[in-house]
Amino acid sequence: MTPEELRALCLEFNGAEETFPFGPDTAVFKVGGKMFALSALDPGRLQVNLKCEPDRAVELRKAYPAIVPGWHMDKRHWNTVSLDGTLPDDLVRELVEDSYDLVVAKLPRREQLALDWPGVGRVP
């Protein structure tokens, strides 16, 4: 996956926006003002921090060397995913979507409805 593909993936979700609160080299992808992905978008060492359910985070770290506890993040809820070609693109897409869903699940219902989020009404 390239930096451009990661950016496009993160921005394809309803209400997703790209911001640069840490300077021009670090993209923060948000929904409802809350971060769901963070990446330097460096083609030489492309990584992305993604939110994850704690139990699943541990499972993923055991199964994939390219997934480690979130760098500079709450390691219980965030993973750093190295996009070095060892992970299937389908898995990366799933992880980004899961991160987005975890953030949207915590937004007020009216915001979830405005995003046309399919998870409205589910218990997070």
UniProtKB/TrEMBL annotation:
Top-level taxon of origin: Bacteria
A Gene Ontology molecular function term of the record: DNA binding
Keyword tags: DNA-binding
InterPro entries in the record: YjbR, YjbR-like_sf, YjbR/MT2646/Rv2570-like
Pfam families: YjbR
Protein name: MmcQ/YjbR family DNA-binding protein
Organism of this sequence: Streptacidiphilus monticola
